[in-house]
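Dear Dr. L.,

I hope this message finds you well. Following up on our conversation about the binding site, I have prepared a predicted three-dimensional model of the protein together with zinc ion. For your records, I am including the exact sequence and ligand specification that went into the calculation, followed by the structure tokens. Please feel free to forward this to your student if that is useful.
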Amino acid sequence: MALASRNTAHVNYTQDMEHDLIVRINGTLPDLSMMGDEEKSERAAEVKKMELAANTSCSVFSKNTSDYGKKEVFHLLVDIGEGVVKNLERGTASGSESKIFGLPTAILITHSHDDHIKELPVLVNKISKPDKLNIYCTKECHDQIINKFPEFGGTHSGASFNTIKPGETFQVGPFSVTSLLAFHGENSPPGSVIYVVMTKGKKIILGWDFVSLPTSDEFLLWNPDLLILGTQTYNPHAEETGLISVTDAYLLVRRWNAKECYLVHYGGLTDFQEGKNQWFRGPTKAMTTTELQKTVESHLAVSGDSGKFKITVAKEGMIWAAKETPKYPDDEIKPIGNFIEIDGLNQYVCKIEKLNKENKLKIEIEDRINRYTLQFDRPKRDKNNDQLVYGSPEIAMLSRGPELRMELVTPSEQGKENAVLKISSFKGKKSIFRDDILINDMDAQKLKKYFQENFEKRTLEATVTKSTGKSDKGGKFNIFSKKK
Ligand SMILES: [Zn+2]
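The resulting structure of the complex is given below.
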């Protein structure tokens, strides 16, 4: 089956893994019994025609070079419903070096619904003794699994359970994994979670089968390299399905600044309900993969986010590969220019623009709720500190705007800590914006260069002009706007 899509890279199983980190979609389907009738649902008809229909599951592969210089690939599987084992085997079928994609070393289980654990016994039986499959799940989920598959209760089983606590980070091979408690509707099994997997500075969110994340630490969800969301329907039907919808996914993508998102677990059956409402404008049927992709793209085009966010309806066998982050700016000679955009590692996206003609500095800081727009006159670098920039207040007839102090603090030891951009904007004693924006090494280097290119060093003369501003009493100068 050819997967023709601009987001799909064909995997040649006979070749060594080219990338350090890849994610393979092993399956995208909800419980097959919930797909509906193929005469009525085009989506069900599409699934019926699939060569290998499998429930939602992903594999995360990370390449490591061992102490002996040998390349090893760690395979971490997430969920194991119907059809997944066959799909994994297909990935290893041809070619002598195909073992790089082989069976998983470890598996993360999100919850104990059949479409997420059904083939766990099949997989465990495939692991050759004395190796054991390392299974990670919550205590509640573990008990539910033992209930369903009592054979895992004994010590002779090829399964080795590790119980995890939501919110706590644990290490699985090269991966740092954190689970987050998930509410998955009325018949949600206790102890359901989603996972955030991090390695080599990349963040992957495996987020399916949830309606809400009750205890979520949103800092953990901010700015993922890949967000995988389980969306049962297009229109919101959380109560009936226990899952979010594609329309919810649009909001989460923006809220977490997820530039690349894969949608899985779509069935669309409940969307037929909207057909009863003649005024309803959205989709009123279960769409095929192609139709759903088209609908998603037209939404992104209309909302103006098509450049910023990429949402792909995932297909079985699809591969996502982490883009290499170069250690240094791609071209050290090429100037950065007067505009730079920095994605903070915490909650902010920050745009800095030097308006050369007016000799002003514009800073836009956006988090998931607010956008702060600040503007200053005559930006200058500190006389003794190249990484410190000052901005003078804009002065109007009767008022003056805030001042700026912006300092880039880079850690003395590379890779030890994150660089921080400390932004403080204030009007007298009153703070207008003040926070630290955590940034990666690469962005810190770019920013350093940006400072050098754009700001002259502050001389004594420039400091003096600061005090010539008029009184700010009664100032209504709208320099700072906070909007929803
Ligand atoms: Zn479920």
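In brief: DSSP finds eleven helices and 24 strands in the chain.

With kind regards,
A. P.
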